[in-house]
Amino acid sequence: MDAWLLGTVLLLVAYFAALAWGLRHRGRTLRGPWLFFLRAFFPNWKFFHAVGRAPRLYVRGRDVNGQCGPWQRIYPQLPRRAWHLLHNPAVNLALTQQNLIDHLAQDINDLPEGADPQHCVSYALVCRLALDALQGGHWGDQTLIAQAMPEAAAWQLELRMEHPGLPDHAPESVLMLQSDFMPLPARTA
Q1: How far apart are CA 95 and CA 60, in angstroms?
Q2: Distance CA 33, CA 139 (A)
Q3: CA gyration radius for the chain?
Q4: Nearest Cα to 56, choosing from 110, 88, 92, 97?
């Protein structure tokens, strides 16, 4: 066995040993910034437990006059192409980001009553995703939201639990989290 393969095997063994230790000593929910990153290797399989509402992320901007734009859902339906059966990095990225949104919803559910979700690593990562969407971020050749608002002075995100197939912000949706308006960071050239 060459050194590269042996090193890879040892790293995998160390990774799973750390994961097992963390689960044994911290309960079934991974907490803390370094344990959170281990969770990134595993998708959120919660959707197998029950059919129902799924978390959806919305973002909107507010201009300098205080006028708010409409709520726009992140993770739009991407068009399907025949070559996507072989190569589909944009949808793979979209699924990874939706998995992050699922993890935030789970983290919020796991928080004790009255705890602030802003201290969760998943909250910080979802905020970065929402800000990127508002400023015109893309998945391949598709924008994250229908209409970017790079001229916005502040922004806000919202996490809603909605039944798939219903229109955005349907009356049956449940508000899970709504952030305060946050100022847009200064752009660097």
Answers
A1: 22
A2: 26
A3: 19
A4: 97
- Which tokens is 152 given? 């916005």
pLDDT (tens digit per residue) in 79-110: 677 777 777 777 777 778 888 899 899 999 99
List the beta strands (DSSP E) in 63-131.
Answer: 72-73
d(CA 133, CA 187): 15
Residue 54 forms beta bridges with which residues?
162
Q: What is the pTM of this model?
A: 0.70
Angle in degrees, 0-180, between the axes of helices 121-134 and 89-110, rounded to the nearest 10 = 140
Report residue 144's pLDDT band, with 50, 70 and 90 as the boundaries. confident
- Tokens representing 58 are 């919305």
Contact between 152 and 69 (Cβ < 8 Å): yes
- How many whole angstroms separate alpha carbon 100 and alpha carbon 42? 11
- pLDDT above 90 for 125: yes
